Amino acid sequence: MQSVMRGYIRSVDAVNYRLGRVMMYGIFVLMGILLWSSISKTFFLPTLWTLEMAQFVMVGYYILGGPYSLQLGSNVRMDLLYGSWSVRRKAWFDAITVLFLIFYLCVLIYGAVSSTAYSLGYWKDAPFSFLAGVVTGTEEVGTLERSSSSWRPYLWPIKVVMIVGFVLMLLQCISELFKDILRLKGAEI
């Protein structure tokens, strides 16, 4: 069982590490969009797409970079008591709290899948089977949801990014849970 956990940890950590390293450069994309927004408002006609696109890039940057942040342990933590605890006590505490995070992420994934199905024109009560049908080609997409801004981009791409980010965060949380279990057993990770 420990070898299965180690294999899972290695594979999930590798994917999230590589994606996180790529997403670090998303801040430069965001800066470029905002710079172009400032330049176009000052010297040319203001563009309609820049602020909303900056919001979309920020969502992708934040959500897809989250698993990397969790993997590195750079998430915000109240260190008042935690810093003085032993490795074993930290592992117990982390194992318990990550279970709450896993539950929360499952709720977020359900909401993101429902919202994505809605943005693809599905208004019934089985969003998971609808999205599976869209992927396999057995379901057809309805009227696509668009933003209410004057630019009016489709919203399904950013909602798909949210699903991918939440799933990757869930996988990383399970990896962190496995690391805590291995620490409690005294095994090497």
UniProtKB/TrEMBL annotation:
<keyword id="KW-1003">Cell membrane</keyword>
<keyword id="KW-0812">Transmembrane</keyword>
<dbReference type="GO" id="GO:0022857">
    <property type="term" value="F:transmembrane transporter activity"/>
</dbReference>
<dbReference type="GO" id="GO:0005886">
    <property type="term" value="C:plasma membrane"/>
</dbReference>
<feature type="domain" description="Tripartite ATP-independent periplasmic transporters DctQ component">
    <location>
        <begin position="30"/>
        <end position="181"/>
    </location>
</feature>
<keyword id="KW-1133">Transmembrane helix</keyword>
<comment type="function">
    <text>Part of the tripartite ATP-independent periplasmic (TRAP) transport system.</text>
</comment>
<keyword id="KW-0997">Cell inner membrane</keyword>
<feature type="transmembrane region" description="Helical">
    <location>
        <begin position="154"/>
        <end position="174"/>
    </location>
</feature>
<feature type="transmembrane region" description="Helical">
    <location>
        <begin position="91"/>
        <end position="113"/>
    </location>
</feature>
<feature type="transmembrane region" description="Helical">
    <location>
        <begin position="21"/>
        <end position="39"/>
    </location>
</feature>
<dbReference type="Pfam" id="PF04290">
    <property type="entry name" value="DctQ"/>
</dbReference>
<feature type="transmembrane region" description="Helical">
    <location>
        <begin position="51"/>
        <end position="70"/>
    </location>
</feature>
<comment type="subunit">
    <text>The complex comprises the extracytoplasmic solute receptor protein and the two transmembrane proteins.</text>
</comment>
<comment type="similarity">
    <text>Belongs to the TRAP transporter small permease family.</text>
</comment>
<keyword id="KW-0813">Transport</keyword>
<dbReference type="InterPro" id="IPR007387">
    <property type="entry name" value="TRAP_DctQ"/>
</dbReference>
<keyword id="KW-0472">Membrane</keyword>
<dbReference type="InterPro" id="IPR055348">
    <property type="entry name" value="DctQ"/>
</dbReference>
<protein>
    <recommendedName>
        <fullName>TRAP transporter small permease protein</fullName>
    </recommendedName>
</protein>
